[in-house]
Design a protein that fits this description.
Strand content: 25-35%
CATH topology: Rossmann fold
Number of domains: 1
CATH superfamily: Vaccinia Virus protein VP39
Distance between the termini: 31 Å
Number of helices: 5
Order of helices and strands: HEHEHEEHEHEE
Radius of gyration: 15 Å
Number of strands: 7
Largest sheet: 7 strands, mixed
Shape: globular
CATH class: Alpha Beta
Helix content: 25-40%
Strand order of the largest sheet: 3-2-1-4-5-7-6
Length: 179
């Protein structure tokens, strides 16, 4: 594991109990805006890469049994499990996802890649585990990523971009598809 990734994991482990108080409102705004751009079925199998405490579960509560929350920070997942005892939480590195090829209908990666030393690797992994026709939702801080840079990295991973826009809060967002 790279030093940067180790440092990020350590920081999130140390602040896990405070994460929701700090970020819940802004994350919910992102979810609301992003999910308004797509149709999804409550039977879709969803992987939330970099899920943290599982805030996406709060937003998509009707399909909780079909969502897998995956994060490098064990403490973030423990916090999420306190609220969602029946949900699926897996501690894993986003660069090496422990899932079979073509397993998911929808993969999200919300406010994650700015923390990664090799974001292309995570986006390639998200592509690998998506079913053909599956969708990928990505956001990244606009202070770090331009729309051009996000487009480039998604296309390099193999995605077809459906929509790329600036969210109403601090991020650029991508809706992409695995053709």
């Amino acid at each position: 594991m790279s030093k940067k990734k180790h440092d990020v994991m350590k920081r999130y482990n140390e602040t896990a109990s405070k994460y929701d108080d700090r970020y819940k409102i802004i994350q919910e705004k992102k979810y609301r805006e992003i999910f308004s751009m797509i149709d999804y079925d409550i039977t879709d199998i969803i992987l939330d890469v970099g899920s943290g405490t599982g805030l996406l579960l709060d937003y998509l509560s009707s399909s909780i049994e079909n969502i897998i929350c995956c994060d490098l920070s064990f403490n973030m997942l423990v916090e999420g499990k306190k609220r969602h005892s029946k949900a699926n939480f897996i501690c894993a590195d986003s660069d090496h996802l422990p899932f079979r090829d073509s397993s998911f209908n929808l993969t999200t990666c919300i406010s994650v890649i700015q923390n990664l030393p090799e974001p292309l690797q995570t986006i390639k992994e998200s592509f690998r585990i998506l079913k053909r026709g599956g969708r990928f939702l990505l956001t990244a801080l606009d202070k770090i990523y331009s729309d051009k840079k996000l487009r480039d990295i998604c296309v390099r991973a193999g995605y077809e971009i459906n929509k790329l826009w600036h969210l109403s809060v601090e991020d650029f967002s991508v809706v992409a598809k695995k053709s």
